[in-house]
Structure formats: C-alpha cells, structure tokens
Amino acid sequence: MTRTVDAHQHFWSLARGDYGWLTPGSGSIYRDFGPGDLAPLLNEARIDRTVLVQAAPTEGETRYLLDIAAATPCVAAVVGWVDLAARNAPDRLATLAANPLLRGVRPMLQDLPDPEWILGHELQPALAAMAELGLRFDALVKPQHLRPLLTFLDRNPDLAVVIDHGAKPALRSGALDAWAREMREIASETAACCKLSGLVTEAKPDWTTEDLAYCVSHLLDCFGPDRLMWGSDWPVVELAGGYRRWHEAAHACLSTISTSERERIFGGNAARFYGFTSG
C-alpha cells in the first residue's frame, strides 16, 4: 500500500508564550494542539507521516518540536527556525542539525516588514551553512515576496527551497494575474518546489472546491506532479473548513491526473524533498 505524507502541519502550546501571532482573536485555534489531536485526522485520511513546521520565531520552539517529534512516530521531519541574520547563525544551525529530525528552516518572511529581507548579504553565511548541512528552506511568502524570491533562488542554486502555501494567492479578491505569472516564472527558471497547502484560508469563508480549482490547476501546470507536495496546514485549516474537507477538495482538484502522479503529490515528493522514507 502506498504511504502518504502531510507535508505541513503544526503543534503548539500557548503556555510557551512565543506565538505572537496567536491571540484570543484567533478563534478556535487559540488553544493547545498536540499529537493526540492530530492522530484521528491522520487515521481518517490514511496519512502515515508528517512534516512538523515551526510556528514561532524562536529556537526554543524548534527544540520543543524536535522533542515532540522524537516521541511521535508519525513525524518524519521538523522544519525549525533560526535567526539567519545572526553572526553565529552557522554555528546555531549546526547545533540544531545534529538532531537528524531537523530537515529544514523557515524564517517567517510573511511577517517581516521588508519583502526583500531574504536578499540581505548578512544572510549569506547562514544560507551557505544550510546548503552544506543539507537543510531545506521553507519560504513562507505572499505574492509581494515572489519577485525578491526569484532573485534569492537565482543567487542560491545549491539551496533546496519549497514555497509554502502556494505563496498564498489572493483567492478572496481574485487578483491572481501577477501571482500566476510570477509563480510560473519561478517554476520555469528555478528548481524550487511548492506546497499545495494553505489555499483554503486565503479563500472566502464559504469556499467550494471550484473556487480552488484554478489555483490548484495553475500550480500543477507550473510545477508538475514531481515538485508539488500536499500539506494540511493543520490546525490553521480548522479556521477554513477543516482537515477532511481540504484533503478531499485537493483530491477532487487533482482527480484528472494519474494515480502515480497523485501518489507523488500526496506522499513521495515530500519524502524525497525532506529526505525521509514515506513508508
């Protein structure tokens, strides 16, 4: 039986105090979420492995996630956080990467005021260290970051990069032309991969599968079935229909491609990108 992977999920504990974006105004996701909450959803969707992604810009949270991963068999990889602009960033990366479960790093680019932050020269030692350590770069970006991201990718061809959440296209407003053009340019000119995740939280509250179809089709056309990987963005997805609904909608949007292509998007690509076996 083919194994499946959720390439993007989170756990968090409010008592940590380092989730600045998570407030009482965040609604139903303003509570703790751990492996016990996710397990029944994975079982229902027949998902075997996950990639656990940071949600706070602290190394403390990264260590917290690594501890959870060590005790949670379904978690195959952790994407953590390091201050890439710090002078000792290469040493800090090496220390964290001594844990084999750490497979990537994600600066929270969408929350930074400067969309060109990733082009800063002070990041180069850390980026070189990431490439040498075999760490992947998760690019948490919005459409306004895509032009700087293309420059970043051109400058760092040895760094394995995946774009989170399809770069969060503006599904509510329908202003998709620039996003579509720049995602195609990135896909054609670089080796970057893309996560088919996070789309439903950018859509209108009463979204339908048809509302997502254009963006899913465009990402598939741009990146192909070998550079796309499905992720739930759980528990954030609970604000926009929930795990099952997004999982089923993604399958529906990809129903016209072959079984082997869907198997890669829903498992094999993430396992290959992050360097673990999906079985």
Layout of strands and helices, then pairs:
Layout: E1 5-9, H1 35-45, E2 49-53, H2 59-70, E3 75-80, H3 89-97, E4 102-105, H4 124-133, E5 136-139, H5 146-155, E6 161-163, H6 177-189, E7 193-196, H7 209-223, E8 228-230, H8 243-253, H9 259-274
Parallel strand pairs: 1-2, 2-3, 3-4, 4-5, 5-6, 6-7, 7-8
Helix pairs in contact: 3-4, 5-6, 6-7, 7-8
Account of the 3D structure:
- The termini are close together.
- The chain has a single domain (about 5-275), classed as Metal-dependent hydrolases (TIM Barrel), CATH 3.20.20.
- Strands 1-2-3-4-5-6-7-8 form an eight-stranded parallel sheet.
- The protein is about 40% helix and about 10% strand.
- The chain is α/β, with parallel strands linked by helices and about 280 residues long.
- It is built from nine helices and eight strands.
- Helix 3 (about 90-95) runs parallel beside helix 4 (about 125-135), helix 5 (about 145-155) runs parallel beside helix 6 (about 175-190) and helix 7 crosses helix 8 (about 245-255).
Helix count equals 9
Physical arrangement of strands within the biggest beta sheet? 1-2-3-4-5-6-7-8
Structural class: alpha/beta
| Broad shape | globular
> Overall pLDDT, averaged?
96
**CATH topology, what is it called?**
TIM Barrel
Question: What's the story with the biggest beta sheet?
Answer: 8 strands, parallel
Span of the ends, CA to CA: 9 Å
Q: What fraction, in percent, of the residue positions are helical?
A: 25-40%
Tell me the name of the CATH homologous superfamily. Metal-dependent hydrolases
Q: Catalogue the unreliable spans.
A: none
Total number of β-strand segments?
A: 8
* Percent of residues in β-strands: 5-15%
Topology pattern, helix = H, strand = E = EHEHEHEHEHEHEHEHH
Q: Radius of gyration from the CA trace?
A: 17 Å
Number of domain modules: 1
CATH class: Alpha Beta
